[in-house]
Specification:
This protein is α/β, with parallel strands linked by helices. The chain is built from 14 helices and 14 strands. The C terminus is likely disordered.
Length: about 450
């Protein structure tokens, strides 16, 4: 056979092969729909010879209607159809940005679920690619899919697996305040996780406070008070917790003053005296732990947790009296560093997050560091730690309209962007009243006593 004729025949066979491959690919892409239709087709084909085509058609329609009318089966079918459609859209977007293997297939979807901000996929990278390749093309894939954003996170257990959040809406940019899930509780326990806000994916963020301290910083109006209120409310609703308050403005923590062990205002001398008392309590606990052969206070040991809430930390650290300022700084550093194992939790807030106000030696002792909106990247790093702003965790870039939004940095983890839960003044007053009842206190009697 002449060479030209052989080439022509090969081209014909190649065209047929390419056509067959495209048909198989199309059928494979529609495999979910075909599998759902297969039982109906089987019923129709089985009944047609036995009862006629009309009866078979009606019976098949009745089966389909019954499946769709039943809640669990309807949800199962709709979920499978949604997942199949999302998978096809994902594969088309990956093909558009040329993130495919030699078979024109992108990262395979292992799992898909709906999340408050959109959809979340678990994908496995194809051989020869990495999660970094996917992350590098996230912006183009988002544009191809017509969505707001694509967030890619590498699996901690498998370098070839990634979590992909397809963001369709911003969970942080909502006008209504977020209601604290524990706002209506009569009692809580500070030994359990404290829900503090909602992250970018619309999921709840909780923190464990025992053996941890919290530093909150940001400019005025950024939402520091909301964060402090949530943590203080959790402590107040635990009748075993002892509250110690340092209120530089005298009004931010006033709602808790009737149930607190002790409250001081804008007096550095009184604040130093409070910290001395707390230091003495801490030393006594360590003596008991040593006698009992224990290393730290634990749940069920009979020792109540102590929470020290310090609003306007910068006020006490920058007072004009150098001796008092130094003593306050030394005592606060001692309580924060040694108090963890003794069951003492320090929550400190400041609207002046500057390195000359909050020394690094004190900041680094806080297990949780929470940066609300700041004026500069340097101020953001003063709270979170040096270098985080250059990695994208910059509280200075938070829009002014997003009150309560900030970055929460836990030890040995990357900062998490979240919006804090909010408690109104009325809700705080109700919580304080319930907290007083849980502690068998009479607020009216305490108020009358404080006035006299």
């Amino acid at each position: 056979m002449p060479r030209k004729e052989t080439a022509r025949k090969n081209d014909e066979y190649r065209w047929i092969g390419d056509f067959m491959v495209s048909v198989i690919d199309a059928l494979w892409a529609l495999r979910t729909e075909l599998m759902l239709l297969a039982p109906l087709a089987a019923i129709y084909l089985w009944l047609s010879p036995l009862a006629g085509e009309d009866v078979a058609f009606v019976a098949t329609g009745m089966v389909a209607s019954l499946v769709l009318a039943t809640g669990p089966s309807r949800r199962w079918v709709l979920h499978r159809l949604w997942r199949a459609r999302l998978r096809r859209k994902w594969q088309r977007a990956c093909a558009d940005v040329e993130l495919t293997n030699k078979h024109d297939s992108g990262p395979s979807v292992i799992q898909a679920e709906k999340v408050p901000v959109g959809d979340e996929l678990t994908v496995r990278m194809f051989r020869g690619s990495s999660v970094d390749d996917l992350d590098a093309k996230a912006e183009k894939i988002a544009a191809a899919m017509g969505v707001r954003e694509l967030r890619v996170t590498r699996s901690d257990h498998n370098a070839g697996v990634a979590k992909v959040v397809i963001v369709r809406r911003d969970s942080l940019d909502v006008p209504a305040p977020l209601t604290w899930p524990v706002a209506d509780a009569d009692l809580t326990s500070l030994w359990f996780s404290v829900p503090v806000g909602v992250d970018e994916n619309g999921k709840n963020v909780s923190i464990d406070l025992p053996e941890r301290n919290v530093l909150i910083g940001g400019e005025p109006g950024a939402g520091k008070s909301a964060a402090v209120s949530v943590l203080a409310s959790m402590a107040a609703l635990d009748p075993t917790v002892k509250l110690w308050l340092l209120d530089g403005k005298m009004v931010e923590l006033a709602v808790w003053s009737k149930i607190a062990e002790r409250t001081v205002g804008p007096s550095v001398e009184d604040a130093v005296d409070l910290l001395r008392s707390l230091q003495a309590e801490m030393n006594e606990r360590y003596e008991h732990l040593l006698a009992e052969g224990l290393r730290k206070v634990g749940y069920g040991d009979g020792f109540p947790l102590h929470m020290v809430v310090c609003d306007e930390l910068a006020f006490y650290l920058t007072c004009s009296d150098r001796k008092l300022r130094g003593e306050f700084s030394d005592l606060m550093r001692d309580v924060v560093s040694r108090g963890r194992a003794a069951g003492i939790i320090v929550v400190a807030a400041t609207q002046k997050p500057a390195h000359d106000v909050i020394p690094t030696s004190l900041r680094d002792l806080f297990g949780f560091r929470w940066a609300m909106r700041c004026n500069t990247p340097q101020a953001s790093d003063t709270i979170l730690g040096t270098g985080w702003a250059t990695q994208g965790f910059d509280a200075a870039k938070i829009p002014g309209a997003q009150r309560g939004v900030g970055f929460l940095h836990a030890e040995d983890q990357r900062p998490v962007k979240l919006r804090c839960y909010y408690l109104s003044d009325g809700e705080l007053a109700e919580i304080a009243e319930r907290a007083a009842k849980g502690r068998n206190l009479d607020l009216d009697a305490n108020l009358e006593e404080s006035v006299t």
